[in-house]
Amino acid sequence: MFTLPGFTTIRSLGRGGFGQTWLLRRDSDGMHFAVKVLHQYTQDAFDRFAREARMLQRNQSNPYVVNIEGSFFQQGYTPYLLLEYCEGGSLDAWVTHRREWKAVTFALAHASAGLDYLHGLSDGFHRDIKPANLLLKYLTPDKSQWVVKVCDFGMARTPETVGPGMTWSPAGTPGYTAPELVTGMYHRPADIYSLGVTGIELLTGRKEPAALLGALGPTALHQLLRQMVSPDWTQRPSMSEVSARLRQILNPPRPKVQARPAPRPQPPSSGGGGWGWLAAAAGLTALALGTMNSKDSNGRWRGKDGRYRSGPWG
Fold first, then answer.
1. Which distant-in-sequence residues (6+ apart) come within 8 Å of 275 by Cβ?
2. Among candidates 111, 127, 124, 135, which has minimal Cα distance to 242?
3. Domain residue spans in the chain?
4. Per CATH, is 92-250 categorized as 3.40.50.1980?
5. Catalytic residue positions?
6. Theoretical Cys-Cys bridge with 151: which of 50, 66, 187, 243, CB 3.0 to 4.6 Å?
7. What is the pLDDT of residues 118-172, one digit of tens each?
């Protein structure tokens, strides 16, 4: 068990290829932290661990990357990284207990925003994106608000890290690695491929693009994921485009409502409705007047009472 002065060790959070992570509680305020401890003492492992610390420190202002609170590197002592604790655990749990498509899209949007920041930072990239390296951090006590953060930068790359300790050999997790990595091509589109596979798995429980057939969620999300896992890396969108399209899927633009002109009055028609009735009434009135102004064979006028009389009409 790892111990650190001023902290109480609670339990182990997991073990990886190079280190083990423990949950600690700070004695002064009761806050929880995760401490990642190196348990391999080879020079390559030490270099990778130090590189992860540098990458995390460079991303301190990135809200979608796990925060580093402190680190310790000294020959002869156990190196460690003190990190913020993401109590929601990794998104591995979402594979077996899948969330609805909006939650998956939010998670991918957070991860893509974090990776976009990394890609713009000295042209670096992560190289090992998968559900296990995406952590869930709750922002409210009722867990209704949360954020997904990228972690585990042990294989991340930046241009200046090209020495023997740099992992230029094929790396990553089988099933999530882009096909061009086999040929030794290491670049940012490989992260896009890995995130696409991660999205398909979170949505369907499987990694194959064919699993999207019949999957829940909008067509735009399925199309984006298929483009992200294209075998041809030149056909994949950039991480900036991925992030923008995910946000658009979550907040689609509302159609504009155009004002309609006021209806113009219609001219009178001869059939039906009020206009027809008025026309018929006018015709009957004219007929009555014509009848009232008629004379009989003796030249007498027909009056209002219907009787004929001589003299003026009235």
1. 268, 269
2. 111
3. 7-84, 92-250
4. no
5. 128
6. 66
7. 888 756 789 899 999 999 999 999 999 999 999 988 887 765 454 444 444 556 7
